[in-house]
Amino acid sequence: RKEVEQDPGPFNVPEGATVAFNCTYSNSASQSFFWYRQDCRKEPKLLMSVYSSGNEDGRFTAQLNRASQYISLLIRDSKLSDSATYLCVVWGGKLIFGTGTRLQVFP
Amino acid sequence: DAMVIQNPRYQVTQFGKPVTLSCSQTLNHNVMYWYQQKSSQAPKLLFHYYDKDFNNEADTPDNFQSRRPNTSFCFLDIRSPGLGDAAMYLCATSRDDAGSSYNEQFFGPGTRLTVL
Question: I want to staple B93 with a disulfide (CB 3.0 to 4.6 A). Which of A52, A73, B29, B46 is the partner?
Fold first, then answer.
């Protein structure tokens, strides 16, 4: 079983749509959780940290369920510029990356 | 702007010919990391330096070595590249090696290695 699992997608959504990505992790001792964004052939960049209480940054909302070892990212009012791969990342002594979920927003 | 710089951006080498990739940072971060990312796969940590202390991942092949001569620079040496080593190599830095968002890892643009 992979340490961090994500649906690879792609998710093809129209502009303005709401889209949700899910992620599960296997190590219950994991301490910190993040979503990174990676554009095609570019480096990963931190999108947001994920806290147990849930956190929001503009159109982006992240949730963590430690009991289920489950992390989610919700994007509201999708923009063309949101098209990218979204990497679920877990810290357990080092960063463990999921393989990412690809999002394509179309006009 | 403070940043993580990788050179070259694209590197072509021949099977078995040693190659060195370089990374520099102006962030004055303590920790520097090297990741390997193959197409449609997750970045995989090869090793990292905390200051001068080298930390190798258990599954990193011996073919991969690293040097950090000073705070700003870190090198990835591939002694005998094989076809399976073709990948994007990402350098990253962080203030410390704990997992909080305070210690966000900043990635360089990567070096795409082709092995002929």
Answer: B29
pLDDT value, residue B97: 74
Interatomic CA distance for residues A29 and B99, integer angstroms: 12
A6-24 pLDDT, tens digit each: 988 899 999 999 999 999 9
Considering CB atoms only, which of A4, A32, A100 is closest to B99?
A: A32
Q: Does B43 touch chain A (CB under 8 A)?
A: yes
β partners of residue B64: B78
Which pairing describes strands A11-14 and A101-106: parallel, antiparallel, or unpaired? parallel
Contacts of B42 in chain A (CB under 8 A): 4, 87, 96-100
Q: Is B81 an interface residue toward A (CB < 8 Å)? A: no
Of the partner residues A32, A42, A43, the one whose CB lies closest to the CB of residue B100: A32
Closest CA to B72 of B9, B16, B3, B18: B3
A99 in contact with B at a CB cutoff of 8 Å? yes
